[in-house]
Structures are given as C-alpha cells and as structure tokens.
C-alpha cells in the first residue's frame, strides 16, 4: 500500500471515529451511529474531491 493511500485511510478512519463518538454521545444506537459516521466520511471525501478539482482549475 502506498504511503498516500495509508494517510488517506488514516484520515478517513479518524473522521469516522470522531463522527461515531459524536453520534453515540447524542444517544444514537450503534447501528445508527455507524451509518451516520459513514455518511460523514462520504461527505468529507466529496468536499475534499471538490476542493482538489477547484484547485486544479485555477
């Protein structure tokens, strides 16, 4: 695995854990918290991709 991919996975794991903990602290069940955290990671990935596309266009 490349270093870049490993860093990306570590960032996504951190985002997932943070979102999961936040959801659980709000009282969600573990299943709900997992889906909430997965959505948060997808949202973060989408925002990151849009930022890269915008930066390339400049």
Topology:
Layout: H1 3-25, H2 30-57
Concise account of the structure shown:
The protein has 58 residues and is mainly alpha-helical. The protein contains two helices and no strands.
Report on this structure.
With 58 residues, the chain is an all-alpha fold. The protein contains 2 helices and no strands. α1 (3-25) crosses α2.
Annotation keywords:
58 residues; mainly alpha; 2 helices
Question: Major β-sheet, in short?
Answer: none
Distance between the termini: 31 Å
Shape summary? elongated
- What series of H and E elements makes up the topology? HH
- What number is the mean pLDDT? 93
Number of helices: 2
Oligomer: single chain
Helix amount: over 70%
> What percentage of amino acids are in beta strands?
under 5%
Which secondary-structure class do the elements indicate? mainly alpha
Strand elements, count: 0
User: Which stretches of 5+ consecutive residues score pLDDT under 50?
Assistant: none
Radius of gyration: 14 Å
């Amino acid at each position: 695995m490349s270093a870049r991919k490993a860093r990306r996975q570590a960032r996504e794991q951190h985002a997932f854990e943070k979102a999961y903990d936040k959801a659980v602290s709000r009282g969600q069940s573990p299943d709900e918290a997992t889906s909430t955290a997965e959505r948060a990671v997808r949202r973060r990935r989408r925002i990151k991709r849009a930022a890269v596309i915008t930066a390339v266009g400049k």
